[in-house]
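Ops channel
N.P.: pipeline sanity check, posting one input/output pair.
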């Protein structure tokens, strides 16, 4: 009887890519958006999200294009909670889903701008808070 053992050697770079990113639940959209941008870029899928990918004319290349576009869409959906999936469930491609999420979470109404401006100018660091956390909160408001 033969026993076959497979040994997988995983580099530290591959281990880094195995880290799980938390799902977007509606809070801190700008940070989540940046992380997703980097994830799409790492997998070579950002061009499907920003719309710069063009559908090739050959059938084989077209199939490959559609597979990658759906891979990008699936990657986006994997990183959303159920409440956020409701915003994109009727989108038919990753670009329209990305734009829908940006439209919901990056509203640029005058009311929202005034609310953020007031919050930005009145924010104070509480005694005992971490300086780095406070700076990141102010940066997030500025974005």
């Amino acid at each position: 009887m033969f026993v076959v053992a497979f040994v997988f050697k995983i580099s530290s770079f591959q281990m880094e890519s195995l880290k799980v990113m938390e799902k977007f639940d509606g809070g801190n959209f700008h940070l989540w958006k940046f992380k997703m941008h980097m994830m799409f870029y790492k997998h070579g899928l950002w061009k499907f999200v920003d719309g710069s990918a063009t559908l090739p004319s050959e059938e084989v290349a077209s199939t490959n294009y559609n597979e990658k576009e759906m891979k990008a869409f699936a990657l986006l959906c994997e990183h959303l909670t159920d409440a956020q999936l409701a915003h994109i469930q009727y989108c038919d491609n990753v670009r329209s889903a990305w734009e829908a999420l940006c439209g919901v979470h990056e509203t640029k109404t005058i009311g929202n701008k005034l609310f953020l401006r007031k919050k930005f100018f009145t924010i104070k660091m509480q005694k005992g808070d971490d300086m780095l956390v406070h700076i990141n909160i102010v940066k997030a408001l500025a974005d």
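N.P.: looks fine end to end. The CA atoms of residues 72 and 119 lie 35 Å apart.
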